[in-house]
């Protein structure tokens, strides 16, 4: 039973807002990717990405899927640092769990934005790690968050996927 107090309604609107934003990111360019990144050393892997303008429009950002043999598809979202992107460190945030797990970190914890009180948009997070770090949020292994496809059977297989993702990403965005 849903209580009539304001708190549960706020929570409900917040959760709905996060889900709407998750889907907005995925719908952007769903049928047409802006870029497809490859690496000669890893022909069975590629990154499909878009350049969303959601959340923090003041920084460069990329979101999309890292595809492995067309059997695994790992969702990611990258935000440049608000400070000095060329000098600031890169932090890889590996998430796993049910729901849109990257977005819990993005909108509740360390990401550049929070969901506003109405649940229909975002507000800047002044405590975001993106103030002083370039952030890559990666849903892994497959079948967590918005990642999908064949299950990962070992830690080594998951580590290989992440390693190749970083090789392709940094080859294109040094």
TrEMBL record:
One of its GO terms (molecular function) is serine-type carboxypeptidase activity. It is an enzyme of class 3 (hydrolase). It comes from the Eukaryota. Keywords: Carboxypeptidase, Glycoprotein, Hydrolase, Protease, Signal. GO terms for cellular component: fungal-type vacuole. Residues 1-29 form the signal peptide. One of its GO terms (biological process) is proteolysis. Pfam families: Peptidase_S10. Its EC number is 3.4.16.5. Belongs to the peptidase S10 family. PANTHER family: SERINE CARBOXYPEPTIDASE CTSA-4.1, SERINE PROTEASE FAMILY S10 SERINE CARBOXYPEPTIDASE. This is carboxypeptidase C. It comes from Gigaspora margarita.
